[in-house]
Amino acid sequence: MVTVMFLLGLVYVAAIGVAVAFAPKGLLPILIIVIAAFFFAQWFLSDKIALFSMQAKVVQPNDSYEARRLHAVLDRLCALADMPKPRVAIADTDVPNAFAAGRSQKNTVVCATTGLMRRLDDDRELEAVLAHELSHVAHKDVAVMTIASFLGILAGLITRITFEMGLWGGFSDRRGRDDDESPAAVLFLVMIVSMLTYALSFLLIRSLSRYRELAADRSGALLTGNPSALSSALGHITGEMASIPTQDLRKQEAFNAFFFTPAIRGGASVSSLFATHPPVAVRQEKLAKLAVEMGRPY
Question: Where in this chain does the record put each Peptidase M48 domain (predicted)?
Answer without folding.
Answer: 66-289
